[in-house]
User: Fold this.
Amino acid sequence: MKIFQKLSPGIGIDLGTANTLVYIKNKGIVYNEPSILARNTHTQKTIAIGHKAKSMQGRTHSGIETVRPIRDGVVADFQATTEMIQHYIKELTQKSFVGRKPFLVVTTPSYLTSVERRAFINAAIQAGAKEAIIIEKTFAAAIGAGLPVWEATGSMIVDIGGGTTEVAILSLGGVVISNSIKIAGDEMDRLIIKHAKHAHQVVIGEATAEQIKINIFKNEANGTLDVRGRDMVTGLPRTVNITATEIGVILEEAIEQICLVIKKTLEQIPPELASDIIERGLILSGGMALLPPLEKIVSEYTQLPVILTETPLEIVAKGTAKIVDEPNIIM
Assistant:
């Protein structure tokens, strides 16, 4: 760990299924972009990363493909993951935010195997890092939320991201219990796509489904949204009206599974830590924590206080930030 102290400033990366956030010491979060890249299918050369690649999703021809390197919280495309990390290191080096061969703090899901953990580290090293350490996403989120993870008291965090929902109980600087399921934002998108096809006979893409999920509950006028897709019968473009009510119904399946994994974790808590959780409740983080009904549903299901972090999308990155700034805290 001494080497990390010599290589400051380092880089903290929340490499998520949906979004990648990058933190630099003394600069804060300098990148918050979709975890997606576009590449030429003939040369395999990457042509866009982040927002630009996201804008191409669903609009490409046979010569271009969009790739999400992280699927369900794990490295699905090692080369693409390496290129994405390399892209950010190169940009930060060119801007003189970091020197050559910086050290990285990278977050990963709690359930990764040793082989998958090594894949993350190898991706970072091949991308140009001198050294890399990986931190469980829930642990980073708890640190970012300011929970007393180093004390002899129980803290509970539920992180609902793009590919996974992770639930953890922490105490004395470690994870006491953790459970996860591959049901989160992406699964909700798939349910919306399926619903549009079966209920409205319209085919929509992932990007459209994501926008429905994000926007449907923000429409204060009547809770409806005009959705454009391809008619399954005629094959022509068509606009349909989807309501917040029907979206809420179809998302119940995913939300129920999330509640069940929270319940499973609560049932495994040692009695001493259970009293801490009853008193202080649980922290909700991750992009999907912003879904308006979720906070209330989880509270009603668990009969516990549920606290939404101030910046659910950034809380994991803020945890890596604290580790980058003070690497000795994880020792």
Q: What stands out?
A: Residues 244-267 form the longest helix (24 residues). Residues 1-8 have pLDDT under 50 and may be disordered. The first strand starts at residue 11 and ends at 15. Residues 2-140+315-330 form a domain with the Nucleotidyltransferase; domain 5 fold (CATH 3.30.420.40).
